[in-house]
Design goal:
The protein is mainly alpha-helical. It has a single domain, classed as NADH-ubiquinone oxidoreductase 51kDa subunit, iron-sulphur binding domain (de novo design (two linked rop proteins), Up-down Bundle), CATH 1.20.1440.230. It is built from six helices and two strands; from the N terminus they run E-H-E-H-H-H-H-H. A two-stranded antiparallel ribbon has the order 1-2. The relative contact order is 0.17.
Length: about 150
């Protein structure tokens, strides 16, 4: 009741937990069902919803998600170990301002390469939040690369 803490506006919604794609605030009234979220480019996932206020750096948030996937990878699949480790390394570089502006293409290529190569569905989980953050919040990534610091700090 009353909106986000401190009266901040909504920046992003992660409607289905760490493996779903971000959606924008104008989609807050989406029904929480598989077809509606799929049509919006996301997923219901584990059903954990997270709201991000304005001022949140999506580089930092996607790095946290990617660190989670890298940490939770069981290590059985070489492709999954490589993907989760590489995505984490790429985001750490961006966080430090060391990446290149064509980072989105590298991430898309890496996620595409690993698609369907795992022994389970885990290999497909890190891609949606990262790819959607790159698409929806490019200014956060650009600020890290341009200014060599987090725009939220």
């Amino acid at each position: 009741m009353g909106g986000l803490k401190g009266g901040k506006r909504l920046k992003a919604i992660l409607p289905g937990g760490p493996s779903s794609a971000f959606v924008l605030p104008d989609q807050i009234d989406l029904p929480l069902d598989y077809p509606s979220l799929e049509k919006a480019g996301s997923a219901l996932g584990c059903g954990v919803m997270r709201l991000y206020p304005e001022g949140t750096c999506m580089v930092e948030e996607t790095l946290r998600l990617t660190e989670f996937f890298a940490r939770e990878c069981c290590g059985q699949c070489p492709a999954c170990r490589m993907e989760t480790g590489m995505l984490k390394a790429i985001l750490e570089k961006i966080q430090r301002g060391e990446g290149t502006p064509d980072i989105s293409a590298h991430v898309e290529k890496l996620v595409g390469f690993a698609k369907g190569k795992g022994f389970c569905s885990f290999i497909g989980m890190p891609g949606p939040p990262l790819l959607s953050a790159l698409r929806l919040f490019p200014e956060d990534f650009e600020a890290h690369l341009r200014d060599k610091r987090c725009p939220a700090s």
